Amino acid sequence: MELSRRDFLRYAAGAGAGTALGGLAGLGLALAPARAAAQALRIKESRAVPSICPFCAVGCATLIHVKNGEIINIEGDPRSPHNEGTLCPKGAAILQLHKNPNRPTKVLHRKPGAADWDVVSMEWALGRVAELVATTRDETFVERMPNGKLVNMTPAIFHLGGATLDSEFNHIAQKFCRGIGMVAIENQARI
Ligand code: SF4
Fold first, then answer.
1. Looking at residue 16, what is its pLDDT?
2. One domain, residues 169 and 181
3. Among residues 128, 103, 108, which one has the least CA distance to residue 119?
4. 68 plus 95 within the same structural domain
5. Number of domains present in the structure of the chain
6. Same-domain status, 184 and 157
7. pLDDT over 90 at 130, yes or no
8. Which of 7, 100, 121, 175 could form a disulfide with 96 if both were Cys (CB 3.0 to 4.6 A apart)?
9. Which residues form the pocket of ligand 1, taking CB atoms under 6 Å from any ligand atom?
10. What's the domain range around 134?
11. What are the CB-based long-range contacts (under 8 Å, 24+) for 178-185?
């Protein structure tokens, strides 16, 4: 392939500004085989465990590659009839549920007005949350509307479920929330 000086500078800039592979692709080189080889090398001698993305109700199928008892890669399962090996950006980051140095691993609490966070035990945190929920509910409980209609609810607490919660957990959470009189209950999928 003949390259003019102008072409060389343009492709080199593309590689520098974007990715090296992008620059090589710009030269007209077929990179699919190289990509496939690199991926095969990465998951070589690993065990592929079928699973499902936990983030939303689409339920895309995944393959979890495990080597020496450690998860080394998670990708879409090409055998799946609905995601056909693809994952959205959120699903493509599932590995970070397992490996993410930025993820807090301790329970943190910041006192009112404080600037810093304290490490607390899970038992203390659960007790504190329960205490605040019970107090808020009791202080704001509405038994009847002004027209006399029985409602037995609190408008003061909002529940937002996370996308990694599964259907069974959400079923229980809904029952609990409604049981104590909450009416503002939501579960997000792709935030
Ligand atoms: S979050 Fe994305 S990858 Fe996961 S199930 Fe939903 S659409 Fe699929």
1. 43
2. yes
3. 108
4. yes
5. 4
6. yes
7. yes
8. 100
9. 53, 55-56, 58-60, 83, 87-88, 90-91
10. 104-139
11. 180/133, 180/137, 180/154, 181/137, 181/141, 181/152, 181/153, 181/154, 182/153, 182/154, 182/157, 182/158, 183/153, 183/154, 183/155, 184/155, 184/157, 184/158, 184/159, 185/158, 185/159
Q: What is the pLDDT of residues 32-60, one digit of tens each?
A: 777 777 777 778 889 999 999 988 878 89
CA gap 108, 103 in Å, rounded: 12
Whether residue 23 sits in one domain with residue 66: no
Q: How many helices and strands (H and E) does the chain possess?
A: 6, 8
Top mutation candidate among 53, 75, 97, 167 for ligand 1, by most atoms within 8 Å of CB: 53
Contact, 53 vs 62, CB < 8 A?
yes
Say if residue 79 is in the same domain as residue 121. Answer: no
Single-letter code of the amino acid located at 104? P
Distance of alpha carbon 36 from alpha carbon 48, whole angstroms: 16
Contact 163, 54 (CB under 8 A): yes
Ramachandran area for residue 190 (φ above 0: left; ψ -120 to 50: alpha; else beta): alpha
CB count, 10 Å around CB of 134? 11
